[in-house]
Amino acid sequence: MSTRPDYVRPLDIKHGRIDMGHGAGGRAAAQLIDELFARAFHNRFLGQGNDGACLPAPPPGHRLVLATDGHVVSPLFFPGGDVGCLSVHGTVNDVAMCGAVPLYLTASFILEEGFPLADLQRIVASMAAAAREAGVPIVTGDTKVVEQGKGDGVFICTTGLGAVPPGVEVSGANARPGDVLLLSGSIGEHGVAVLSQRESLGFETSITSDTAALHTLVAAMLHSAPGGVRVLRDPTRGGLATTLNEIARQSAVGLHLQEAAIPVLPQVDAACELLGLDPLYVANEGKLVAVVAPEAADAVLAAMQAHPLGRQACRIGMVTDDPQHFVQMDTRFGGRRVVDWLSGEQLPRIC
Amino acid sequence: MSTRPDYVRPLDIKHGRIDMGHGAGGRAAAQLIDELFARAFHNRFLGQGNDGACLPAPPPGHRLVLATDGHVVSPLFFPGGDVGCLSVHGTVNDVAMCGAVPLYLTASFILEEGFPLADLQRIVASMAAAAREAGVPIVTGDTKVVEQGKGDGVFICTTGLGAVPPGVEVSGANARPGDVLLLSGSIGEHGVAVLSQRESLGFETSITSDTAALHTLVAAMLHSAPGGVRVLRDPTRGGLATTLNEIARQSAVGLHLQEAAIPVLPQVDAACELLGLDPLYVANEGKLVAVVAPEAADAVLAAMQAHPLGRQACRIGMVTDDPQHFVQMDTRFGGRRVVDWLSGEQLPRIC
């Protein structure tokens, strides 16, 4: 993303649309990058203008983390966010869930011919704001254009690089029987907010997506109990149920939940009832689940509740010794059921 | 990409197709990842099964490089390659062009509902082979599915992380008047090979894409003349002409080419004549252009010619002092012309 030639006239962002030339590597592509992307994402690494960004390495003793995600959410704009901020939050969170401090992001755009430049600018501005707020610059990127009918407006693939400080060991494989399960807040808002905007489903709701960057919450948790946080995961696609099944399988343990302890907003409950969904399987984009050592649970929970994104944090269950690696749940009605993997399709294009 | 639940029956790769469930984060998504992606890309980092990959950092004194690219080539399979190996080569090369040793790759797939699993497996196998051959593992990834008619088979976004050894300083901004321009081989093959397969253009040709990973060529060049290599670029989308204009602009210099010195295969020349294209603007995926200090030119050129991917390497011109930053070329016919930026659309979806 270098200094480029002078353009005859500036991009007409108000009325213009993406055309195939914006992806062909010539003057039009350079202009789009200069006047739309580089201007919004501006930072000294992006300004290097090479095929990649050259970056300082973290201090010795740190390990690196790479995480990547494609974002194909539909619709592109939803209550509480859009594909732009979502693509930043999602990848910042994936890096943070490995116990790493997110340092840099890359962004690759696949644009559909005919997409309004005004909408693209809105998405890019949201992305830039999310990156700035998170303190994680977008250091390099790419733009491709596909013909109308071969894409769907905008797809954004983001990759994050982070550094794990010495002494931090967080992995989905580290849960042990007796550990405590913590959840940072209420579940299901992102999925319901997106579904409420689908043409086929459109319903009125006051629910907004919880999309948010969780890395400062993670930092507070790790600081509160060094060595006490064993697993961190953000329950996105597939929801809390899927995430917990992944942890159980990866750590070769069972999990035992208390349904009554899992916070669900009444509006989310109502919408899920209407749609025939179980909030346990609905995506979140600003929540995390943690497995912590029993002796660290109080300190970590207090640190979560003291953070703006963890005020509703709570204990939702514990890790058990179970050779079948089941996630079981005591229901509100006094029964117990297995919370299984989701079988079929539930919510496509939710992120 | 963790250990997953047991599946009722294995994926039917021969007859199966991508459905929306493969992107929904449940059991079907996990099975696709396990049986297709994880099996092909197998390495200890991918096997960690967390939201990202935790990786050893390079030795102290190294800087990091991040590069990212979306790959939307159409058609997905072309003579000499496919979107799979292309997505590895393209990103390995972008990292290498920053003077870095490529260490790790990430891959994010956007799949269209209905895409045959057999084709996907072929692409993934090609990608895995390219990564293995390059010695750069795919350490983490993501898979999304969009409805039929909202994508185009497979899009792949790859991100590469590399390390720049101490003392290496390569940037598009480093060209100085008097420097020598080197090209690693003949131009235009990738673009012509892809175009030859387009339904609308389909023509018979023996030309195959030059798609290749150039990082070992770069390493040999850097080794041959420490500090002597100032700029490295792979002339992909937009071709050699666009790349040279980018360098001229970024370094605030002029460039002066000898047309007769630029190798073009006769079949590429003939195809370009047929299609009304100038090979200078046609994409390459296995070539590089270098700006080297005059005193280093002989050594770097010899190192290139000794490498299998640089056997045809040659001097094609030099860097001049030009306040207008023009790329000029002495033509075969004794004239001189400005090699300008490409204005409109030339070759969409070539990579």
From TrEMBL, chains A, B:
One BP term from GO: protein maturation
Domain PurM-like C-terminal: 176-329
Gene3D superfamilies according to UniProt: PurM-like C-terminal domain, PurM-like, N-terminal domain
Location of the PurM-like N-terminal domain: 49-164
Family: Belongs to the HypE family.
Name of the protein in question: Hydrogenase expression/formation protein HypE
High-level lineage: Bacteria, Pseudomonadati, Pseudomonadota, Betaproteobacteria, Burkholderiales
